[in-house]
Amino acid sequence: MLILPAIDLLGGKAVRLKKGDYNAVTVYSDNPIEFAYEFKEAGSTWIHVVDLDAAKSGIPTNFEVIRKITSEVGLKVETGGGIRNMDTLKRWIEDFGVSRCVLGTSAIKDRKFTEEALKVYGEKIAIGIDAKGGEVAVDGWTKGSGVKALDFALQMKEIGAKTIIFTDIARDGMLTGPAFDSTKELVDNTDLDVIASGGIGCDEDVFHIKESGCAGVIIGKAFYEGKVDLKKCLQNV
């Protein structure tokens, strides 16, 4: 199972939100690059980076931070937030060396773009499924879509998706444990590579979510709060 430590960017700073609430922000660093180096030193090869400004506005704003992570730190970057056209995808993947881009809101709202993205970039595209009460949320988690998470995952599989990133919004940033049952449901019923996100609060949570059969897990607040020993987890999964 792949472990992806996460950096959420807001105004160029490393932050975390509670349950996706932009009014419940904790700032952890004015220099996110320092965390990227920490992750690499612990043994990480991948990092998950979210442009929270772009997730809400649809306008990517943190290109320079991510460029430094790919070119200077040397980690493989998976990034999402506000990716809603092919020009943005091209810039991330071809110009900035991002290894995988996550389509969330655009995957729900713009099927034509999503199909084109999967056709052109294949496994460099992941579909972000951020669920609130089992329903996929959009626009930086501020609105519901009316589509159930499992149904949406199967729709994405039909048009060529191989990887989905599943986040239970109610658990995100709460350190209360991952959404094991929902994650396992997606693993068992889609045959996709499912990366779990949200709720990891300790080392045991990492080992537990692995039992769901997911292909990866994203760790955010638990690292910043000292609840997870990243090096130990990387060595034992």
Verbal overview:
The chain is 39% helix and 30% strand. The chain is α/β, with parallel strands linked by helices and 237 residues long. The protein has an eight-stranded parallel β-barrel with strand order 1-4-5-6-7-10-11-12, surrounded by seven helices. The longest helix has 11 residues, at 32-42. The radius of gyration is 16 Å and the shape is globular.
Strand line-up across the major sheet: 1-4-5-6-7-10-11-12
Structural class: alpha/beta
Give the % helix. 25-40%
Strand content bin: 25-35%
Our measurement of the CA-to-CA distance between the termini, rounded to an integer number of angstroms, reads 6 Å
Number of helix segments? 11
Shape: globular
Uncertain stretches: none
The main sheet comes to:
8 strands, parallel, barrel
Which helices and strands occur, and which strands form pairs?
Layout: E1 2-10, E2 13-18, E3 21-29, H1 32-42, E4 46-51, H2 52-57, H3 63-73, E5 76-80, H4 86-95, E6 100-103, H5 105-109, H6 111-121, E7 125-132, E8 135-138, E9 143-148, H7 149-158, E10 163-168, H8 180-190, E11 193-197, H9 203-210, E12 216-219, H10 221-224, H11 230-235
Parallel strand pairs: 1-4, 1-12, 4-5, 5-6, 6-7, 7-10, 10-11, 11-12
Antiparallel strand pairs: 1-2, 2-3, 7-8, 8-9
Helix pairs in contact: 1-3, 7-8
